[in-house]
C-alpha cells in the first residue's frame, strides 16, 4: 500500500477535528472533535509502525497508550464539563469569559440569562476591580 | 542490469532498506492501485465524510452517532493495515465506551434533541480558513515527502494479538504499569470533580 493514503487520510481527519475544535460552541462537541484529532494521530502511528517494521513496535504500543489516555481524558473532560454546567447552567465555551482580560467581559452580563450567572459575573467583576485597584 | 530494473530499484530504495524485504512489483503503481488500496480509499472517504458531518451537523446527538461511524471506519482502516489488536481495542474503547460517555454527557447537560441553531460559534469562518490552510499544507507536505514510499503488507500480520502481547509485555511493561496508575488517578479525579459541592462544605 502506498504510504500516502493513510498519511493523507490522517492529515484530513486531523484538520476536520481542528475545524470542530475552533468552530463548535458546545463543550461536548469540542471534546468529540478532540477525539477525532487523537484518532488521526493514531492512524499515523499505526501506518508508520507497519511501514518501519521495527522489533519494538513503538508505534502500535504508543497507539495503545494514546487510546488509554484518551479514555482517561474524556472521563476527566466530561466531569469538568458537568461541573461547569452545574455551576453556570450552560456548557457553551464562549460564554465562560470570567477570566478574560478585555473590556468585552465587563459588558457580558447583558446576554446572560440566569440570575446566578449575573451574580457570579458581578462577583467576578468585583474581584477584578479589587485586583486592578 | 537493465534500465527498467534500475528504475524499479531506485524507486524502491527506501522501502527496501527499511523493510529489509525484496520489493514487490505489485505495489509499484501509483495510478494502478491494488485491491487493498481501493478498499482503504473507499473506507477512508466514508470515514472522512462521517467526520465532516460530525463537526458540522446542528443536531448534537446525531454528531455523537456520526462519530461512531467515523471511529468504526478507522477500526476498519487499522484492520486493512494488519493491526488487528488495535482495531478491536478501537472498537471496544472508542465505540463502546467513549461515545457512550459522550452521549451521557449530552444527556446530563440537557442538550436539545432537535436542531440547535447555536451549535457553531461566531468564528466558524475563521476556523474554516485555518482548517483549510492547515489541510492544504499538511497534505502537500505529506504527499511530497512520501511519494515513493510503499508499505509492505505481505508476510505475517504486524499487529496480531500474539505479536502485540509479545512486544507489549516484553519491551513496554513499565509504561504499561505507569498507564494503569494514570487510569486510577483519572478515575479518582473524575469522581472528585463530579461530587456534589455541598458534601465538601459540610
Describe it for me?
The complex is a heterodimer of chains A (133) and B (202). Chain A has 133 residues and is mainly α. Chain A has two domains: 4-96, Orthogonal Bundle (Helix Hairpins), CATH 1.10.287; 97-133, no CATH class. Chain A has helices at residues 4-23, 27-52, 58-88, 115-132. Mean pLDDT of chain A is 81; it is low at 110-119 and 126-133. The radius of gyration of chain B is 23 Å and the shape is globular. Chain B has 202 residues and is an all-alpha fold.
Give the DSSP E fraction of chain A (strand runs of 2 or more residues).
under 5%
Averaged pLDDT of chain A: 81
Shape of chain A: elongated
Run of helices and strands of chain B: HHHHHHHHH
Largest sheet of chain B: none
Q: Oligomerization state of this entry?
A: heterodimer
Q: CA-to-CA gap between the ends of chain B?
A: 85 Å
Would you identify the CATH architecture of the domain at 22-114 and 125-171 in chain B? Up-down Bundle
Number of strands of chain B: 0
Topology, please?
The complex is a heterodimer of chains A (133) and B (202).
Chain A: H1 4-23, H2 27-52, H3 58-88, H4 115-132
Helix pairs in contact in A: 1-2, 2-3
Chain B: H1 3-11, H2 13-19, H3 35-56, H4 60-80, H5 84-108, H6 124-145, H7 161-170, H8 173-193, H9 197-201
